[in-house]
Amino acid sequence: MYPGPRSARTPLTVLALVGAVLALLLGGAGAASAHASLTGSDPADGSVVKRAPKQVTLTFTEGVSFPDGALRVLSPDNERVNPRTAEHANGKANTARVALAGKLSEGTYTVAWRVVSADSHPISGAFTFSIGKLSETSVVVAPESSDDTAASRLYDAFRYVAYGGLALLIGAAAFVLVCRPEAGALRSVRRLLTAGWGTLLAATVALVLLRGPYETGGSLTSALDPSQLYATLTGRSGTALGVRLVLLAGVALFVRKWVAVGDDRPVVVGRRVVGGALAAALAVTWAAAEHASAGPQVPLAVPVAVLHLLAMAVWLGGLVTLVAVLRRPAATGAGLPVSAIVRFSAVAFTAVVVLVLTGLYQSWRQVASWDALSLTSYGRILTFKLFGVIAVLCVAAFSRQWTARLVDHDTQPAGLARPVRVAQAVGGAAADVPAESSGGDADTVSAPEPERNRRGLRRMVTVEAVLGVVVLAITTVLTGTQPSRAEAENAAAAAAQKPPAKVVMVPFDMGTPGGHGKVQITLAPGLVGDNTVQAVVYAADGGLSTVPELRLTLTQKAQGIGPLDAKLKDQGGYWATYDLRMPIAGTWTMNVTVRTTDVDQVTVRRSVEIATVPGR
To answer: Do residues 379 and 373 lie in contact, with contact meaning Cβ atoms separated by under 8 Å?
Structure first.
């Protein structure tokens, strides 16, 4: 029997340990990364159009959906000028379009957008365009995407809690159906089942309420808005959460009426089938609305993700359940037979194999290259998860050794004497004597070998479970991180939309000895909107030259715009500016003034073409 203080502990100790590890890991969790990106708009960012457009269209790297107020077009006076909600342009899922009101006045308009990418994560941003001419605007535009809100942080936290509840619910149920513990241990397992079910139910309800403000970027008080709740439950992610709630009602009925101990093999098989179907259906509510539902090979990725979730739950939840049962004294009849431990060991080994195989596929699908493991956030987090899995496998090997010792002792002939350590009353030396001859004269007798083996197994399984919780936490962080493949695709799409920088060589000659050379001006990206300018002066021999002053202005004669002063600043060897805004497309005249001495300077001119977004 275990020492008294240890046997008094309950499974709540295990749950507290799991909760502490999760809290430690989740305390530093941030908002989810964007999984889609904006590749273009019409009108383009920073452009000046002659006539008021009838609509604004945005294009993204993947399909998007629209929460309430997905696109808002605001006048210079901060008044909304799009009377209707967003829709897809020409049925294309990766576009968003809003119609504009008629008779728009001249000035600068702001487009604020927030959409939900195909894998359920919201993305947002803003840009401006002008009608007729630039103007002041009272609209305040955030420089970064405002995705890090109180609602998003709570939503992410409850996603982690939901994963933990799923693991405990499925793992404990699988433990009962596979291991069929004795009546005393079954009561502890049922408490874990109830805790897992209640945790998952509470987390799912919280996710349903938070989904609206998570998608729209709204305040927590909007979580109870009936119209927003309706919009949530009719969206893809909200529908998945609603289905999960219905399934949990079925799970409650299953756990209450069917999870019980018994040797009726047909009934047990039937329970396993029903339980497996409910577990798979619960896992689908995750796979159908997250990473597996977007990207390549979706028909294969979704079932693989379901298998991955089920294997995780059976293994990790089963480990937590095994720890709870092993804490009960076997001598009271409330423990776990060695045969049941062996059965769970086989199931856990199978689950780990499935985890590894499905994890390899998911890693290949989301990472795509070896370099991405070190160059992207997703790859680095995945590497940490790999180390965690290796650590778990190492500890699992020790757990299997302790299980083998239990099996060896259980199968040893009953009449064979097993030595124990006895401290002699005289002489103080310890000696091995057969258990049958130790009698009651010894001062101390160590715990029997089966008990020592159980304690060793319990310690190893506890360590394995804690490491499993760490791996689970890393996994949930991965679900909120932009996959490496998507990041690379977004970067490629952005690069395809971005033309090479404009490079113009401007020769100059002041008519004095050594007073001639060239100025190389690089305008990037050379599009309507914000540009950076870098200018380098070369002497007649081709070497770099320093000059006391270099000035650049641009003029658009056809539209009567300019001169716009680039306000170049000496950067120590070259001249640059990083905020030159080009308002319209067309041919612009660059006026370059080079001064080499107090009295020697010259102004030369060259033309440069400023374009809108490619393809517009």
So the answer is: yes
